[in-house]
Amino acid sequence: MVTLNEDNHDETYDVIVVGSGGGLVGAYVAASRGLRTLVIEKTDLVGGTTAYSGAGLWFPGSAPVRRAGLDESVEEARTYLRTIVDDSSREPLQDAYLRAGVQLIDELEKNPWFQSFVHAPVPEYYASAPGASPTGHTVFPPPLPVAELGENTRLVRTSIPAERWGVDEGPVLSGGRALIGRALSAFLETGHGSLRLDTALQSLLVEDGRVVGVEAVSDGERVTFRAERGVILTAGGFERNRELRAKHQPFDQASQWSHGAPGNTGDALLAGIAIGAATDLLDEAWYVPGLVQPDGRPTFQSGMRAGIWVNGAGERFMNEAAPYDQAGHEIVRLHTTTGVSHVPVHWVLDQRQLDRDSFGGPADQPVAPEWFESGALKKADTLEELAKLIDVPLDALRKTIEEYNGYAHTGVDEKFHRGETPWDQMFQYVLPFPYIPELNHPAPPTPDWPNALLLPLDTPPYYVATIVPSDIGTKGGLKTDEHARVLRPDGQPIAGLYAAGNTAAAMSGRVYPGAGTPIGSSVAFAYLAVLDLADAVV
After folding, report:
1. CA-to-CA distance for 363 and 305, rounded, in angstroms?
2. Taking the CB of residue 224, how many other CB atoms lie within 10 A of it?
3. I want to staple 35 with a disulfide (CB 3.0 to 4.6 A). Which of 14, 53, 87, 485 is the partner?
4. Angle of helix 23-32 versus helix 517-534 axis, rounded to 10
5. Is residue 413 a contact partner of residue 421, using CB atoms and an 8 Å limit?
6. Bigger pLDDT: 103 or 365?
7. pLDDT tens per residue, range 420-463
8. Average per-residue pLDDT for the chain
9. In contact, 251 and 285? CB cutoff 8 Å
10. Is the omega angle on the peptide bond into residue 393 within 30 degrees of 0, that is, cis?
């Protein structure tokens, strides 16, 4: 257990924040207002799944978007959200989110630790919807040199490449680690913030119908912390809880392939349910395709430039370059409803693809031997061998490839329209094999073919990799209102209790509007919670 600001021995605080991912930004906002704020974190590192992320924040109309010279208005983004979510009950949450994103960035940029966020062009995920932007509304924190963060660096969760493969993260924190490092330093610098690691939430304290604190286990010892104004639950989802997923979700096996942080087992969700909180969307997750690596576990696979995905019947079934949430959902839907196996999905490639893009790393380097040695990438000299290798009907596989090759020669995917949206077209220049920013390098389109995303499969030998449905967290949780207050089944708020991020049901419902919606929701609703409880009368 780590306790920072040890001069504060008072076990009563104004605010308690459970979880140290996006909620750490909310904790800073509270502490910066002079509220005595405690953050408890179940694991020995801060950051949660946010630390694994790119730290994109989908904040239409925010200062970085305006500085980039984009003229898309918040009203256009509102129209876009309304259209794709198509659920009037979530409109108050959407309006609150859009308002909070603009305000929060303005407030954070006044603190030297946060500096200036920057806009990066990432197209909206539903390109044909009214109000969709081809350049998107996603903003990112600037990188943070380790030298500036100092000793606090040791407290920030490392990236997935570092955790799994020992990749040297170098002298600069980027993406989610940069956001967490900045938020942690800003929070502690207020003088009103305390952090306790290795401290797991067990239950909520309730008196006269109001949440007044938490009971937790810290280093094996039961401890109690009281909160005079409120408790904010930002402890992630329940993606690592196989039992809960089996109870609520159509494909519980995804828990073993999740990219959520190890501690995300739904403790905050269960604590809320235990005191009568309503829930919503428990059958949902932020699904993504996962490319199985040589170590046997998947990594987040975002977009693709060539090859096709085939199911257990040897047939293509979707646009393989579709936005990752849509692709992940489609794999799960088809696997659980059609009677045809879509787990695993077989990613079929040929020598032409490997010559152009390589696989599993930079395009200018050969495929690393461990891909073949582990069986994560398999090779077949003929289509007959390939069909046997992946156990699909040869005739169906041959027909699928012939049809696809016809599209490659015309440049138009008549069946699934791959390469037609701004999102798809990004991958003419980006090589996400797998999606690790440090390994992705620009590459020009192939001039020999009309569509760089439709390279024909006609150059043996053939190769096959494995795609499984993974996720970056569950997206169902405690039901909340536009102030992030947790609600009872009758729609009334539970006094003193708030939730944000994946502990709460997503304001975007069953869709993923654009890059940065999950992290954006976490920080925006934690911010709204603080605005509400800062004026709370107790």
Report:
1. 12
2. 13
3. 14
4. 30
5. no
6. 103
7. 999 998 887 644 433 334 434 444 445 578 888 999 999 999 99
8. 93
9. no
10. no
